[in-house]
Amino acid sequence: MVAEVDITLNKGAQDSFVRSEEPFPAFMGGYRSGKTAGAIIKCWFYTMKYPGSIGVWTEPVAAMFAESCLPTLRKFFGAYEGSLWQEQGKGGPNHRIEFANGSLWMLKAAETPERIVGFEAAWALMNEAASTEHGSQEEAYFRLVARLSQKGFPHWLGVATTPSGQNWLWREWVDAPKEGHVLFHGGTMSNKENLPDGYIEMMTATYGLGTPMYRQYVLGEFVQMEGLVLPTFDVDKHVLPWPDKLFVRKIAGVDFGVQSPTAIVECAVTNTGHRYMREWLYKRECDDEALIKACGDAMNDGITLFVCDPSGKERIEWMNYKGIPAVKAPSNRIERRVKAWLTPLSQGMLTVDRDSPFLIRELTGLSWAKRRGRELETDKFDPNTPDHAFDAGADVLQEIEEMPMNFKEPTVVEHGVLA
Ligand SMILES: Nc1ncnc2c1ncn2[C@@H]1O[C@H](COP(=O)(O)OP(=O)(O)OP(=O)(O)O)[C@@H](O)[C@H]1O
Ligand SMILES: [Mg+2]
Fold first, then answer.
1. Which CATH code fits 13-207?
2. Cα 253 from Cα 391, distance rounded (Å)
3. Cα–Cα distances in Å, from 289 out to 14, 19, 295, 300, 317?
4. Contact 306, 251 (CB under 8 A)
5. Fold classified for 235-416
6. Among the bound ligands, the one closest to the CA of 28
7. pTM of the predicted model as reported, rounded to 2 decimal places
8. Ligand in closest contact with the CA of 33
């Protein structure tokens, strides 16, 4: 059986993935980078070469066969539908593609891994393997490996997916690749010829060049973004040297720690409302003396108010007693704290000082907690990602949000002097 098809593979990841004879090839790339097309072509070539072979194609959920696998199969090999291949059992548990040469593709949803038992196969292909629509697909992967037992055929398991942070795929193929696990990596750009004009520009404009979102979806990189609390925070865009500007208000946020670090973060606001953030203190086991000293230094620099973690009532009273103008932050609710950062970031109204390493590290890494292999929890931060400078910043940013209520525009009476 010979099928003449005229396909030009994209140079780079797609071409290498299709031709790879490794037992565990992975094509991980940006959106629309030609992953599913590459996977269909790879499976087709194998099927033509090995009559009688059995393969398993998985999608995260059964509904996706009609959206991804079949339209792609029809796009490239539709001319042979009804002669070389046909779809059978649509919508049922036995959904499959039968080939005239005796080969078979079983179409199985990764959402029901318990059904990946009791048959033998030569190959498996997991499309959108990083999707967690019904939980992690790692179990489906383990079960599929055990199916690769059809005698007389070369065995392989491939994946085609957009990466999604440092998950099981990252561990298996990137961090500590096991034998035969080979990664082919490509961005959306590598499939430019087959995409509409302006598509990549549109994605770039929407995600923002260089943001974690851009790096994951367009460049197809393994960005720890899935769980990031501030996915729009971009070091290239939001971190700059402290500016030589006139500020109309300088206040600071305080997060008290006992064993964990105590953090003081300044927010200096310009007359356009732009917020400049920097750290004054980030200290583990911070004693009273160090705290008083940091507040004193900040006050000498023009900071007029310390907005503190509302749960530290006694600490606030103690600071007042020591002559430090300290108040409670408006709210300790997690969504308020996150919004306090996200809103000015999305408005392009927030910049972080380049010399604030702890603050930058927290803003880049803070992640939501995750139940094992399941969806994210957005009511709790991942305890492995520190939030001390983040919280101090959130306290002070909330106060700034409320500022217009009782804030009088300062008037310049003399150049450089505010009244
Ligand atoms: N070698 C090729 N020749 C012609 N068209 C191609 C080729 N590779 C991909 N395409 C086309 O480019 C578009 C995107 O490809 P594909 O669906 O494979 O990308 P993907 O990476 O799976 O996208 P998604 O992230 O949406 O799953 C489709 O229209 C596909 O048919
Ligand atoms: Mg696809």
1. 3.40.50.300
2. 8
3. 61, 66, 10, 16, 16
4. yes
5. Nucleotidyltransferase; domain 5 (3.30.420)
6. 1
7. 0.64
8. 1
- State which of 45, 76, 191, 195 you would mutate to test the pocket of ligand 1, scoring each by most atoms of that ligand within 8 A of its C-beta: 191
Indicate the top mutation candidate among 36, 45, 59 to test ligand 1's pocket, ranked by most ligand atoms within 8 A of CB. Answer: 36
Q: Distance, CA 310 to ligand 2 centroid (Å)?
A: 47
Distance 180 CA to ligand 2 centre (A): 23
CATH 3.30.420.240 domain residues, the chain:
235-416
Q: Mean pLDDT over residues 18-46, rounded?
A: 97
Comparing 221-225, 241-245, 354-358, the range with the smallest average pLDDT is 221-225
The residue written with tokens 């900071």 in the block is 303
| pLDDT digit string, tens, across residues 218-242 | 999 887 766 789 988 988 889 999 9
Per-residue pLDDT, 405: 41
The chain-wide mean pLDDT, for the chain, equals 91
Ligand 2 mean position to 130 CA, how many Å? 11
Is the confidence at residue 90, as pLDDT, over 70?
yes
Q: How confident is the model at residue 141 (pLDDT cuts 50, 70, 90)?
A: very high
User: What pLDDT sits at residue 215?
Assistant: 86
Compute the distance from residue 364 Cα to the ligand 2 centre, in Å: 29
Asked if 312 and 306 count as a contact pair (C-beta separation under 8 A), the reply is no
Q: How far is the CA of 121 from the centre of ligand 2 (A)?
A: 23
Counting ligands in written order, which one lies closest to the CA of residue 217? 1
Q: How far apart are CA 196 and CA 211, in angstroms?
A: 23
For the residues 115-130, what does the mean pLDDT come to?
95
Report which residue type is found at 13.
A
47-75 residue pLDDT tens: 999 999 999 999 999 999 999 999 999 99
The alpha carbon of residue 65 and the mean position of all alpha carbons in its chain are separated, in whole angstroms, by 25
Contacts of 322 (CB under 8 A, 6+ apart): 292
Which residue ranges does the chain devote to CATH 3.40.50.300? 13-207
- Of 5, 11, 32, 67, the one to substitute when testing ligand 1's pocket (max ligand atoms within 8 A of C-beta) is 32
- Give the CA count within 13 Å in the CB-facing half-sphere of 197: 0
Q: What is the mean pLDDT of residues 158-170?
A: 90
CB within 6 Å of ligand 1 — which residues? 7-10, 31-37, 72, 75, 162, 191, 194
